Amino acid sequence: MTRDTDRDRADGRKSTAPETLPDEGTESDESGSESAGRRAVPDGGTAASGEDETTLDPWGSATIADYRKLFEEFGIEEFEEVLPEVPDPHYLMRRGVIFGHRDYRRVADAMVNDEPFAALSGFMPTGDPHIGHKLVFDEIIWHQRQGGDAYALIADLEAHSARGLSWDEIDEHARDYLLSLLALGFDPEEGTLYRQSGDREVQDLAFELGSEANFSELENIYGFSGETSVSHMQSVVTQMADILYPQLDEPKPTVIPVGPDQDPHVRLARDLAARMGYFGVTKAYASFEADEAERELLAAAHAALADEAEESDGVVRCEDAADWLAEEVTPDDARESVVSKLREAGKEPLRPRVRFLDRNATEEAFGALIDAVEGEKRVFDEHIDAFDLSRDAAEELARDVELDHGGYGFVAPSSLYHRFMTGLTGGKMSSSVPASHISLLDDPEDGYDKVKAATTGGRETAEKQRELGGRADECPVYELYAYLLAGDDDEFAKEVYDECVGGERLCGDCKEQAAQLMKEFLAEHQEKREEVEDLLEEADIELDSPRKRD
Ligand code: TRP
Ligand code: SF4
């Protein structure tokens, strides 16, 4: 989410957590650990100080120099690609404000098929809720209206440990976030609200998840150091528990709408969800283990040789695949290693299969899985190969057996990423620069004035503007229309855009209109906040922290 980025760090952690990530797919399996392969740059590292460097640091500076990098370097997927599968998409989706996702297809599928799904996000109560937070509020509410179980949590442990806020400050801000969320339409009777510190189940789950992660990993992912407080680390496992919380009763696709700075958390949560599982499910081609790159080569060799084999005994042998790869594929590490594994396997048939790996299963659960696998199977000490199952069916089976034997059976959580809003004064939107953002609590007149004073994408003179058109794509005022003021009215948003770039719209009038709309929005929102006060009092969430210590 859009958030304050320049408060001093309360915990003396390293100042940068740049990531150089290999591209990775979304499948979690034994080789594709999502948070593996990341390098933290030691203190003073220069990797993050380059102008065009994109870093994803949940507690650092949240500027994204280039959104495309998030796809290429971090493996976030483009939202556009799933958009057609989303029923009745929200305007933030239609307008590309929500630009990226991980594994959202699962959630869209559940929506379409009327199956259970959930949406959850969390808010650090470090200041007033502002129009950047509204994006996330709207996303949660939209998923709730689409039939999902909706969750919003107050990340008070994180605010206290990572930002050093006192419990009193936290209580005050928490209330403000919740009132705005309810005013915008969150239904607290259908949905769930909680604060991290007040929820025993979250704490218990955090503890369990913590046993699957160690310090080196947090060091790599977040740049934690020996100076990082233990409470800050605890807030990380708490967030992992938040993310998986909607699945405690029953595993289900769960979407976490957040700003891209939270992606490291999402990746770790996806990893931990898989690590907690009793079984890992992967594809395999022969008895030996292979990593993702090797599997691709095996698949290619199998595809190439299968037709030929049809004409003889129908069997593709490992040694033939080795010959084929040695001849047809440019040598690299993966090819070298897979060829040598194939040679060693010799006459063993190369056959696609799904493999169940025993991760945390009890003996009983492993036995039950063996019985449950239908069709041809081969059982080994720590894995089972099944020849007549699709990967999806295998995953479902593994989850069912896990659930029957006391496991969580988590589905890897999905995520949605929205663009950060540009600050009204240009640059980034920051809670500590009041003129750069509009708080949902701003006096409507102040909101009006801030919009009137905003930077625009306009030309130096009206004449030039008429001639060349404005630069709506670089205009914070246009963003206000697209992200908020135009609401669901795509035509209106498009009209503003077209008139601007066509030179028919001049900034003075355009800002006047936007300022007026902002004033109305704030007045209305604040009125609604008052109306929902009772609703909040009745809601099942502790508003006053019993904690005394600052
Ligand atoms: N870390 C988030 C932030 O900085 C807050 C948060 C806590 C959160 N738990 C979460 C966000 C779970 C999404 C899901 O604002
Ligand atoms: Fe921005 Fe409006 Fe000016 Fe276009 S006309 S640059 S949208 S303020």
Automatic annotation (TrEMBL):
Biased composition (Basic and acidic residues): 1-16
Domain of life where this protein originates: Archaea
Any Gene Ontology biological process: tryptophanyl-tRNA aminoacylation
GO molecular function: ATP binding; tryptophan-tRNA ligase activity
Annotated EC: 6.1.1.2
Family under the similarity heading: Belongs to the class-I aminoacyl-tRNA synthetase family.
Full protein name: Tryptophan--tRNA ligase
Gene: trpS
